[in-house]
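A further point concerns the way the authors explain their paired sequence and structure data. Since the whole study asks how a given chain folds, the encoding of that fold should be made plain. A single example would do more here than another paragraph of explanation. An entry of this sort, consisting of the sequence and the corresponding backbone structure tokens, reads as follows:

_____
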Amino acid sequence: MSPAAPPSPERLAEILGMPLPTPEQARIIAHPLAPLLVVAGAGSGKTATMSQRVVHLVAGGQVRPDQILGLTFTRKATAELEQRVRTRLAQLAVSGLPGLPELDEEAGPTIATYNAFAGSLVRDHGLRLGIDPDSTLITEARAWQIATRIVTERTEPLPLDKPGAAATALLALDGALSENLLSVADAAEQLGDLAALMEGIGSVRGCKTLVRGVPEALTTRLGMLEAVAAYRDYKLRHSLLDFGDQIALGCRIAEEVPDVAQSLRTQYPAVLLDEFQDTSVAQIRLLAALFSDSGVTAVGDPNQAIYGWRGASAGALDTFHEYFNPGGAAAAENAFNTGGADESRAPVLPLSTAWRNDRAILRAANVTSSPLRHHAPQPGDAEVARIPVDELHERPGAAGLAEGVVVGAFVQDPLAEARTIADFMEERWSPQAEMAVLCRTRAQLLPIADALDDLGVPYEIIGLGGMLSVPEVADVRAALTVAADPERGDRLLRLLTGAGIGAADLRALAALARAQVRSARAQAGDGRDQAEREQPDAPLLSEAIETLARWEETGRPPRTAASGDAEAGGVAEAGRVAGAGGVTGTGAGAPGPADVGLSEAGRRAAVGLARSLRRVRAGLGLALPDLVMLTEQALGLDVELAARVGNPLGRRAVDRFREAAEQFTAEMESPTLAGFLDWLEAAEEHEDGMEAPHVEPEPGAVQLLTIHAAKGLEWDTVAVAGLVEQVFPSYRQQPKEDRTLADKGWMTRPEEFPHPLRADAATLPPFTLGMWDTAGWDAEALKEAWGEYTLALGRHTLAEERRLAYVAFTRARHELLLTGSHLAKAAAKPRPMARFLDELVRRELVRPYGPGWQNYDEDQPNPLAGGGTTGTWPPPEPTGIRGEHREARRRAAHDVAAAGRAGAAPEASTDPTVARWVAEAELLLAERARRRDQPPSVHLPDHLAATRIDELRADRDRFALDLRRPLPPEPRPELRLGTVFHDAIALRLGGQGQLLTLEQAGVPDALTPRQRKQLERWLEIAERLPLLDGCLLQDTEVELELALESLTVRCRLDAVFRDPGGAWLIVDWKTGRRRVPVDQLSIYVHALAASRGVETDAVRAAYVYVDRDDGLVDELSAADLLPLSEIEDALRAEGRS
């Protein structure tokens, strides 16, 4: 029986309670299960349309949900597409649609990134090509380490002398070969031919300047191929893969193993390919080998193809039907050639209604994209049939369409431009504002950030530095480095200044360090020769702070060169005074801080840091993840991060850093701290400091980011900065008077792979010189052909920049500011306004803002020229709004202090800032008074820790108040000791106890003997607990999630065992003496039972109070076990009001 015909897209939307699709959307949604290309303009609702197409296919019985494959590029886009598709399918499942087949809620669609899909292909079928299915995917930093090792161990010379440059070139070349599906042998042959051709051109009289530097660049690539081969051999022998390998090997499997292609084609009859314009030829070939002539829907926009620099093919959409619908493409072309118009065989459907942008922004975007949509081929351009692309159309007025704003300014220099942008943002700022500033490069963001800061406008720089630049991670890394290498004064300096030690104290520490060096030589006898004596001293700050710590512990300073050395200064004098038994400073025989020129605060900070570093050194024998945790505790970061509310970045970054240590440990045969630190150095340079954890931006903060990073995002208000020729658009050569550009492109840019070797060469300007007969070359003909080719390359470069401008302009919903400056970046000479801005100005599509269109003033130099910056220590007082607020706080504090001394209430302040603060405080107090007698009402979060459910059941009102205004728990020594116990018992039960002393477990140095004894007793009680007799440890610190009806509960189980009878046993350690209701363990039982696939009666659970009666055990009985329904009732009673 054939499936019932699905309802129309409009009827289906009504049934599911969704907005009615437009006619464009309806055509796409209802298209048969056959190859389809969708050209989706910026903000045209492609994700909503694709999810409705999936629902339509499922509703008509053409596919099941688990027969749908969706691919995109980023994890964020993957999550968004999956959430949208699953939501629509869930709505369909309960719609009551007649004839709807039964849907399995568990068997949903497969949504993944392109790389993840290729990786699964290699993992499942790599053995067919001799590839280890358990091969490890390496990071960029790990790859760089391997490449550096290969180039440094080579005995044959390489064309690049510096190991770092050679390793970078090796990896770039290896990646380019993978992206273009080239073997080393094929690349060597083609590069050799190309280099010989360029040398031949240069030998023709009058043509040498044409190819200057080109043969050398090609020869350098050719000379690196042996190293590339060695790198590939290393990866193969050690079962390692990088992202390029995944795609290349996946393509080989798809093309060479027909069984795999047939299996996947049967498994996934419906395939969605998102952001198709950003795919590479290797990705296209892989997917075409699997899904050609099947139900593939590709969605993309050629005007948003902005990733050509990383291997994407700008002509991907133009070749879609050639790869995925070859029969239809041939039929359509034949019909066209014979005068017909049968485009139904190769359908290209548009999505051109812009649901994001207001009218003024749409007009500007359409003008910018017009040359891309109406391409007029010129001599030297690629002969490619381009797909039609519509301009963006306005959304209906009922959908909130407004006129919008496009304004601009072109000013003298980058600082004036930054001030203009900051003024624009300040005028429109509110706590609910969604605003962004977009630049071509990251360096352009910094002056704008300073200008916003001066006006007190909150901002956040996105993508400037990764995880390693987060202060807490940088501190942990610095401490690890100094512990492993005391000579790393640069890292120690970070810790010292972070502890509040200023310039004067640093100078005093340096003097103490010099004194220590000379004292050691004086005591051992100076056996150096004259040349060695003339070498400068090498004092270590780490020795200086260790000296201070020993000084405080022993009550007297270590001996120094006390011979009156002028450079040792007060240190030598301190040694003489203490040695004579004098009493100075804080105690008998103990010199005071002034003896070494240190402030009291500086001394305390230095001593505290020295003790923290001791603890880290004591744990150097631990596994790297445990050492990272110990370092976090030694620096006190665990308490500091726990005390923060509303700023989770530090906590998440430190957790991510520990995960990086775990990853390094898993990947390396013999992981060491030194190797880990080297890996971090490589990650800092080659992975932008590793990806930082995602944290939602502060409400109202202006986001500063590059245009490439802004792809897929949108804001109400956007400023696009740096619209200057040679900056944006970015190119190196001087343009001609008519603004045409002759560009050598790949011939002079080492980061760009030679076009004749690229797999998508057919979509690029053709290098026709490679097809010439070399016999009897004519110089004039060569010059003419060369000029034609470089002009074509120039048009290709400008087209890529125009696509980037289109992406930037379409990020704005309502307001768009376009700016530039005569003196761009640090330039000393003026440059013209960017053609993209000039086009809009000439058409009167952009109105002047602020200073507007300024003329160049040759008497005003660029303040950024010269490149140097000067800083002061301590930092100067802030200016602008921040400075005014600081002064207002000081005046208010002075008034309060004066009133306190007088015993009277302070008079009403006449300061307007203070008066505003007073008014705000009065409003808050009035709000508190109104709500005092009202029960608190809050929204429950989507995720909740299991312990919070216990708090909810115990005191609902207190729980609600804590959610509304969360406060950190008060840091208490007993809580810290309990944390140390949990870490130590987890390690000991895991078989590592013999390696872990109390110091390595994170015990503070200041712990009293009684506390140390108490901790040892707790550990002994836990280890000889009768409850655990015959039990086998399964895991510690187990993190589980349990999905309830209203939210997801997160559980952290201290330890999980299997008892002699095969049952599971959960142990929750308690170091406090107060007993808690045992039924609180119920949620742990349900979570573990669900994760292990067993019934709850196969799971036991107990609290163990290690501080009571040799270990009080309170086990959960079957009668005390709360059913899930009762727990969910408690949550429903709380509600989400």
Summary: DSSP finds 39 helices and 25 strands in the chain. The CA atoms of residues 47 and 610 lie 55 Å apart.
